[in-house]
Amino acid sequence: MELQLSEDQQLFRETTRRFLETTTDLQRVRLLADEEPAGFERDWWRQGAELGWTAMLVPEEFGGGSMSGEGLLDLVLVAEEFGRLVTPGPLLPVSVVAAALAEFGSPDQQAALLPDLVSGASIATWALAEPGSSWLADGVRLVAEAAGGDLVVTGVKGPVEAGAEADQFLVTLRSGDGLTLAVVPADAPGVTVTPANSLDLVRRFAEVTFDHVRIPAAAVIGEVGGAADAVERLLEIAVVLQCAEMVGATDRVFEFTLEYSFDRYSFGRPLASYQALKHRFADMKLWLEASHATAGGAARAVQDTSDDAAELVSVAKSYIGDRAPALLQDCVQMHGGIGVTWDHDLHLYIRRVTQDRALFGTPAEHRERIATFIGL
After folding, report:
1. Preceding omega of 159 cis (within 30 degrees of 0)
2. Which of 20, 64, 160, 270 has its C-alpha lying 20 to 30 A from 97's C-alpha?
3. What is the tally of helices (H) and strands (E) in the chain?
4. What would be the CATH architecture of the domain defined by 228-373?
5. pTM for the whole thing?
6. For residues 16 and 55, what is the distance between their CA atoms, to the nearest angstrom?
């Protein structure tokens, strides 16, 4: 991401990249896809937590902290590196739940849940989407019924990232005329988790069923029916991290495709020497740099809680969500026949970016949000 990095941030990014290249290169990713039901190893995730991945959006009193004091901008560096190597692990869902607790949770909720999230001992995920519905807030249909001072929930959430691996669910509910956020333990009575198929080889999803699950008042984050602003804030954080990951993946694919075009000869000339291909590379470079710019602008706006943050987030998702898959498909064509084989790494990146494109709002849905923001 094209941010002005400090020396500490540069060192942090380099450390993260070296760790990922050493522990989860693409060969390891393929092995995890075949051999690890969760798609990642808990010990590995705890090592990443020790590097600071889970701490960026959390106050220091609960073990958090960041390189620059601007935690989201530091965290997007990790997300971009995850994209560059199609890295497994619940970076986005854990970060979103940590942000929810840090910004909107009660002191008791923070003390009970944040330390284990920061250390990597616990995994939490956001149960936002519902089958057949939008990933945006207006797609929430799961209704919480009042029962004394508690809430009772019956229904289904899904797909939920890392649903089968999570210890806690941050569930978005509809209560009355408003939205409610509540933390539900994965082992709560009435909760059933069913693993689901995933396009991404190492990113797991699940369907979570709630059968008359009782949620105590102490588990509600903020006020019942008053979570609309919090849900919007979490959506912005999620999309910023998602866009950074897509940009990282696209950047890496463009990088090795450009190298290949100089190494691969056709009719005695390198592919990169052909005028028509030069034009296509120029177009791809333009899309890539624009993706960096829109992703960086959205990250800065969300970090600063700017008035136009929601609009810039939707600009980034609608642009990158369209351009990144198109750029990757051009890179497939540049590789020729080998680009569509299982043995080549291109499909790993296409899977990651295609899946990210669909989560937390499609480009079309985010264009509708932009139209609303500007009064159309």
Report:
1. yes
2. 20
3. 11, 10
4. Up-down Bundle (1.20)
5. 0.95
6. 14
